[in-house]
Input
Amino acid sequence: MNTAGDQHSSNQTDVSKMTHTPFFWRSLLLYKLDFYIIRKFLSTFFFAIMILAVISCVIDYSEKVDNFVSKKVPTIEITEYYFDFVPHITALLFPLFIFISTIFFTSKLAYKSEIIAILAGGVSFPRFMRPYMVSAAILCSLSFVANHWLIPVANKNRVAFEDKYINENNYISAGDNIHLGISKNTYVYFQNFNIFNKTGNHFTCEKVDGIILKEKLMADWVSYDTIKKVWRLSNVVIRTNTPDSEALQRIPTLDMKYPFLPADLIKNEAIKEGLTTPQMDKFIANEILKGRENLSTFYVERERRTAQPFAALILTIIGVCIASRKIRGGSGFHLALGIVISAVYIMFLQTSTTFATKANLSPTIAVWIPNVVFGGVAFYLYRRQVK
Output
């Protein structure tokens, strides 16, 4: 049986190996102390995520249980929904939980004077941080892959379930002043369109050749015939331009087949969560071709998927620097400080992304500003610890 004395002796031997091994090998090897910290880091993180997932599922279920009962949702579909819901909530709070997990177990090490013993044994603070960075790199690599390719698949199923059973009566309407490119040289416009009864007014279809308007079709009213799959136009005026003449034609009613459906007019921002990054790139290119003007939310989402794992690395450095000092308040003070920093980070990120979606700030700048600022904080704290 391993006694406390045996464990202390083992740790001393491990620290001695770390300080007496030649520098080149010391920079590559991981020792028992490193694996001890890595094990603590990962176990604390996954335990925290598990608790978060359980609490989130219970809260979400309590909010949606009336819909489940009234619409008689099959149990198997509810189960599948929560299998898809867990990755969503985990990805949403990933940087914050890696930060809080770092502070929690590091402050415990500090409270038991284990960090003091490690540093007193000749281990430098940068060397002490290596297992933290290895652990954070593992988690952040998983987060990067999941954000770009795996979680969108789960989100697609989750959003489809919510549209079917939860948001059925709140489907997003097409709105007003809708522009849509239906081919390279053809563009349509609706002053407004009602997605529920598939009707709109002040419809325009323009065919252009470079900067020359070849034909302009205008209709006071438009509706989509779901049986014949055609657009029915009322009070139509067609203006045709040629190099030598101009013709004007009026038609009471006209049926036209256009290569778009009413669903293509819906600006549903939630679909971005269900697109993998390659799919999102294709979607953005297609929307630009259609003439859609505001795609900032999609650009923000694409940048966020890359910036979030880097944020976790930065917050790990801050967490180690804060929690490695033994203070009178112990773990409680460190956790409180960590929650405050997390709240500031969330507010900063939300404010910057709001500027991107509402004030034309570059999405790349908006998403990466919090990382740059907190990266500066991490560098300052790290330098102070090294000194």
